[in-house]
From TrEMBL:
Protein name: NCS1 nucleoside transporter family protein
Source organism: Beauveria brongniartii RCEF 3172
TM region(s), chain numbering: 12-28, 35-56, 83-102, 122-142, 236-262, 293-316, 328-346
InterPro entries referenced in this protein's UniProt entry, alphabetically: Pur-cyt_permease, Uracil/uridine/allantoin_perm
Any GO molecular function: nucleobase transmembrane transporter activity
Keywords of the record: Membrane, Transmembrane, Transmembrane helix
Signal peptide bounds: none
GO CC annotations on file: plasma membrane
Length: 423
């Protein structure tokens, strides 16, 4: 491969093979992936426990390496102080699951109840985000002295073991470790990357794309971001993980503020699927201009710190670096506050009237649950009745004038697409 690409021919071929293996799983409908995701999660858990046991049991008399034992004093203040390093580590950990936090509703909607979704996240996120970080630190510290280097990149560790001890037993152990790692990563890749992108694209272009098509488009475009460079070194990897929070935390903050503060948990579900000015959520030509302004305020101040974390040649004041170290907290709360303030200063009359009606949030949720929460077998009948009802309403609106084409036809097609969503 070209010099400076941070990629060898072997690694690129591995990427291509993994890409091809992922494609069949992308074609499976999300609600039918539970068995696959449960399997990958179990395999990942067993693999990491086995890896930790192996690393600790074969550590030898030298014990842990300098990753843990080195007593390197930190300055009393500034971004390199102990306090700020701890803050940075916490934010990086949250940033590593920022995409999952933002997109979790794509999958929790398939849960039997909201309680199941809550408990699943409360248990799973800490175990896998914090647990894997602890395992990684311990494995690196337990192997660095005997291997002569720190291996933060797990495939690099496995490759080093084969080179150091090319016996059949070692090769078999590395093979099955790589197989387990590949299988576990399939779950993360399909769920967190391909399908998440497919769901977003299907929502933006419902007339042309379903979830499956959007997922394949996401997969085809994936090489553009040079994903192999994101795991080149531990420093780059941590910077990338933290960087997710810079861009995704403001979105999450706005979503929380929108649902709990602006809309007070009251949403007109029917209007969410009306793609024209008849929807109370149409705002200004389909765009709520308050959102991009709030997002920019949450992202902008953290960008210089993000740049210097990736490229150390860029020098910024310590205060900018410290702000970046709190990027998830700053982005979440600043965007949420600005979003609420803009809605208070520039209210949307039809939305406020709906929020202030006499029905409580619980009553509205129960109404729409009874209306739309149906089994897959019943969905075709329910959706057909909804479309028939909408067609009758449209006929009443167009009595005495020529029936509109174009946007109206597109709206009906969008409703059908969103209702079925090919899932």
């Amino acid at each position: 491969m070209p010099t400076g690409s941070h990629l060898t021919t072997a690694r690129f071929m591995s990427y291509v093979i993994f890409f091809v293996i992922s494609l069949p799983f992308i074609s499976i409908r999300p609600h039918r992936l539970q068995w696959f995701l449960n399997s990958t999660s179990l395999v990942a858990l067993v693999f990491y426990i086995a890896l930790l046991i192996w690393a600790l049991s074969t550590m030898g008399p030298s014990g842990f390496g300098s990753t843990i034992t080195e007593d390197k004093p930190n300055p009393p203040s500034g971004p390199n102080s102990t306090a700020w390093v701890m803050v940075s580590g916490i934010v990086a950990t949250v940033g590593s699951i920022a995409a999952g936090i933002l997109n979790q509703n794509d999958y929790t909607r398939l849960a039997r109840s909201s309680r199941d979704a809550k408990w699943g996240q409360i248990i799973a996120y800490p175990v896998y985000s914090i647990g894997t970080s602890i395992v990684g630190i311990l494995v690196v510290a337990a192997t660095q002295d005997r291997l002569g280097t720190e291996h933060w990149y797990l495939p690099g560790l496995l490759a080093h073991l084969v080179r150091k001890d090319p016996t059949p037993a070692a090769r078999a152990g590395v093979f099955f470790s790589g197989l387990a790692l590949t299988f576990s990563q399939l779950g993360s890749n399909v769920l967190g990357n391909a399908l998440a992108g497919g769901i977003d694209l299907a929502a933006v272009f419902p007339r042309y794309l379903n979830i499956r098509r959007g997922a394949y488009i996401t997969a085809i475009l994936s090489p553009i971001v040079n994903p192999w460079r994101m795991v080149d070194t531990a420093t780059v990897f941590i910077s990338v993980m933290s960087g997710y929070g810079v861009f995704l935390a403001p979105m999450t903050g706005m979503m929380v503020a929108s649902y709990y503060v602006v809309h007070r948990q009251k949403l007109d579900v029917d209007d969410l699927f009306r793609g024209n000015s008849s929807s109370k959520y149409w705002y200004s030509r389909g765009i709520n201009w308050r959102a991009p302004i709030s997002w920019a305020i949450g992202v902008g101040p953290c960008v210089p710190g993000f740049v210097t974390s990736v490229n150390s040649s860029v020098i910024v004041p310590d205060s900018i670096r410290e702000l970046y170290m709190t990027n998830y907290l700053y982005g979440f709360f600043s965007s949420a506050l600005v979003f609420v303030a803009l809605h208070a200063i520039f209210p949307v009359r039809v939305v406020d009237e709906f929020v202030k009606n006499e029905l409580s949030a619980a009553e509205l949720q129960q109404y729409y649950s009874d209306r739309w929460d149906v089994s897959l077998a019943e969905s075709e009948r329910i959706v057909a009745n909804f479309i028939q009802e909408e067609d009758k309403n449209e006929e009443r609106r167009t009595v005495g004038r020529e029936t509109e084409t174009g946007p109206e036809a597109e709206t009906k097609e969008m409703r059908r697409r969103v209702a079925y969503a090919d899932v």
